[in-house]
Automatic annotation (TrEMBL):
Pfam families: Glyco_hydro_28. SMART domains: PbH1. InterPro entries: GH28_Enzymes, Glyco_hydro_28, PbH1, Pectin_lyas_fold, Pectin_lyase_fold/virulence. PANTHER family: PECTIN LYASE-LIKE SUPERFAMILY PROTEIN, PECTIN LYASE-RELATED. Keywords: Glycosidase, Hydrolase. Belongs to the glycosyl hydrolase 28 family. GO terms for biological process: carbohydrate metabolic process. This is Polygalacturonase. One of its GO terms (molecular function) is polygalacturonase activity. The lineage of its organism: Eukaryota, Viridiplantae, Streptophyta, Embryophyta, Tracheophyta.
Length: 575
């Protein structure tokens, strides 16, 4: 055999001599770099590209993780629905021009008749189905076929006289996010967002009434300014008359929900709404729901917004929820917002909004329990996923925490916010959160914990593991300074408690700054554990910035701040 024809048969000495040549060594190094970058590119999907979901899940070992580490058991599908309808049966026309608001509402009402008989499914076939807002029902499935697009109406007042949304009564959120009666009276005099003649149960606080009644007639008004959490305010009176003696703020019973009793004047709730429902689904073969939110973004940017914007999908006080295999586009405000919910699975979604669009969060679980969010690709103008639980004194009073939440295999980009944010509205408490397999790029932060004085509440038992990022400004950020409060009644002495935060297995390329970890004076963030963190190529500030924090670090580059004791020996941090 001719060795010249078979160069791989040459002696090891011959190969070693040539490997030492600078030109060959450089070529091999370049080839290795190309292979490395190719492997990296497989997980570095550029904005706008299809999202390839991982097929395996890597779970960190930590005592702080939720009891469940998959979506199994969070949602009970039950037997197939007993009845199946098509939106066409109710006069729906999918031409992108004809309003289908009445068709959707009639269809849901028809499906509601099967609520105690095994439920019903409403199919939306291929087409562009323009509609105003509509409500879901219990034991109900909304199914969007491939090529089906539900389009939110771009008319500020739809054919039912409601501003792209059906006015919704929110119950406990009245107290959770609230305003003074003085502000309420002013708004009522101004003539905005009013309905009357609605009987509810309530518990009176600070009552001035001589004999507080069990039921009363109330007026409800939605606060008309753009602030993230300005929802509803209630003024409860003895005889439906604002001039009579009031009973102060009320805790409203949310199980009384009768939209037909309400008269509205351009108020905005959500495009698709659920209230106190069980076993309902929004699924499909990658059909789409497009909020067409540009008119609302423009109003916000121009500071001409008269009413707060609605979420694209609002789930309130509901349980056993499945949202999967859909694309959500162009939300006016937050995209998917489960609040006071339990046992919800949100998976296999694509959520898209222009990167400059304001407050277009992807998925925001709020004061909810047993929530699993997985296998989603998100591009937005705000947090991809944000966990919340109430705002300042109102969130503290209601005390509805967000707990047992899994967020896994999430990929996306947001230029101004984070891949996963916790807070800053966290006054009801946030605990037992697992973030696993997160990939972000071209973003402000990968993981962020946000809070401030006045919030109260707590953030505890949070595990973040297996995070990859490229071109992220600050890879890990824990910060104070949210500096927004609902009214003058917030308590500056209400300090949040943040502890037992584990962050591990993090890689970053091309960051601008090293991590920023800022606790609050008098409320140190403690029990922090950071391990196996490699932050390559930090362009501006490679030194960690730490204030009012305490914890441990192990196998972290670049060298962490002194407050994170290196070479940690704590079993809680090492395992």
């Amino acid at each position: 055999m001719d060795v010249a024809e078979k160069p791989w048969l040459r002696s090891r000495a011959w190969w070693w001599a040539r490997l030492k040549r600078p030109s060959l060594a450089a070529s091999l190094l370049a080839a290795a770099s190309i292979v490395f970058l190719s492997l990296l590119q497989r997980t570095s999907t550029p904005a706008g590209a299809p999202y390839s979901r991982p097929t395996t899940t890597v779970v960190a070992s930590s005592a702080s993780l939720p009891a469940h580490r998959s979506c199994a058991g969070f949602y009970d599908a039950g037997p197939p629905r007993k009845a199946v309808f098509s939106i066409k049966e109710f006069g729906g026309i999918g031409d992108g021009r004809t309003s289908n608001t009445a068709a959707f509402r009639q269809a849901v009402e028809r499906c509601r008749e099967f609520g105690d008989k095994g439920g019903a499914q409403l199919n939306v076939p291929p087409g562009r189905w323009l509609t105003g807002s509509f409500n879901l029902s219990s034991n109900f499935t909304l199914f969007l076929d491939d090529g089906a697009v539900i389009l939110g109406s771009e008319q500020r007042i739809d054919d039912f006289g409601v501003n792209k949304a059906f006015f919704w009564m929110l119950g406990g959120i009245v107290k959770k996010y609230s305003f003074s009666l003085k502000e309420l009276r002013f708004l009522h005099m101004y003539g905005t967002y009013t309905f009357a003649g609605y009987l509810i149960d309530f518990d009176c606080e600070g009552a001035a009434c001589s004999s507080p009644p069990v039921t009363t007639v109330c007026r409800m008004i939605q606060y008309p300014l753009h602030v993230v959490h300005h929802y509803l305010q209630v003024d409860c009176c003895m005889h439906d008359n604002l001039s009579t003696t009031t009973c102060g703020r009320a805790v409203v019973s949310s199980d009384i929900y009768n939209p037909s009793s309400m008269s509205t004047d351009g108020c905005l709730g959500a495009a698709i709404m659920s209230m106190r429902l069980i076993k309902h689904c929004a699924i499909g073969h990658n059909g789409s729901i497009d909020g067409q939110g540009k008119i609302w973004w423009d109003l916000w940017w121009n500071r001409t917004l008269e009413h707060t914007r609605g979420h694209l999908v609002e789930l309130v006080n509901s349980t056993n929820i499945l949202i999967s295999n859909l694309t959500f586009l162009n939300a006016p405000f937050w995209t998917i917002h489960p609040v006071y919910c339990s046992n919800a699975v949100i998976k296999n979604l694509t959520v898209l909004a222009p990167l400059h669009s304001p407050n277009t969060d992807g998925i925001d679980p709020d004061s909810s329990t047993n929530i699993c969010i997985e296998d989603c690709y998100i591009e937005s103008g705000d947090d991809l996923v944000a966990v919340k639980s109430g705002w300042d004194q109102y969130g503290v009073a209601v005390a509805r925490p967000s707990t047992n939440i899994i967020i896994q295999r999430i990929s996306g980009t947001t230029p101004t916010c984070s891949g996963v944010g916790i807070g800053s509205e966290m006054s009801g408490g946030i605990s037992n959160i697992l973030v696993d397999d997160l990939h972000v790029w071209d973003s402000a932060a990968a993981v962020r914990i946000k809070t401030d004085r006045g919030r109260g509440g707590y953030i505890t038992n949070v595990t973040v593991t297996n995070v990859k990022m490229e071109r992220v400004k600050v890879p890990i950020r824990f910060s104070q300074g949210s500096d927004d409060h609902p009214d003058e009644g917030w308590d500056p002495n209400a300090l949040p408690r943040v502890n037992i935060i584990h962050v591990s297995n993090v890689t970053s390329i091309d960051a601008e700054k090293a991590p920023i970890l800022e606790g609050i004076e008098g409320a140190k963030f403690d029990g922090l554990c950071l391990r196996n963190i490699y932050l390559s190529t930090i362009h501006r500030e490679a030194k960690w910035h730490c204030e009012h924090i305490d914890g441990e670090a192990y196998n972290v580059f670049p060298l962490p701040c002194p407050q994170l004791r290196s070479n940690a020996t704590s079993s809680k941090c090492l395992h």
